[in-house]
Input
Amino acid sequence: MKVLLVLVDGCQAQVCVSFTDMIHKIFDHNFFIQFQALDKEKFYSEIETEVVNNFNEYSWSSKCRVSTTRLNLSKYIKFLQPNVDEFSKIIGKNFNYRVNDMWLNTYDYGSYQEIHDHVPADISCVFFPNTGEKFSEFYFRDRSSADVSYKLKQILNLYDLWTPSISSGDIIFFPSNMLHGVSCHLSSTLRKTVSCDIIIE
Ligand SMILES: [Fe+2]
Output
């Protein structure tokens, strides 16, 4: 970051000094990791065999408009495992884990998901088999947004909404406490995603 304007004895002065080393960003625990899922074609083919019954199997999405179908872990773990290993490699940490739950979200026209988190899981992930025009978008919201004043947000260009640019076959991993949602689906093509919750042991 380069700071070009400073106050000197109450007056403004132009300087061209980088203050990067003087700015200490702390408590930076919001992140997501995105890559093309390993074995994405096989993963997608398997998902296509699932029967979508337009039924919501989870109480947490009772205020959403989305079809959720619980997936058989023993059937899908072989697709998830290499991707968790890749995530582990990217963060440079090995950890033991178990998959708490895995489910298929299906969005028809007008479907969406309210902002939510996946507490008490530790890490959550979403696989995006298909994308398209007017598809709904996965987005993050900053849980701590209200902790910063409006004016400070303006002068520091702080933001509280982030929409990842998703390609078909992408998978993202993020801390389960991060708030996220899905905007309204405005395509007649079914949008499918697979979500899962991981518990660190
Ligand atoms: Fe979610």
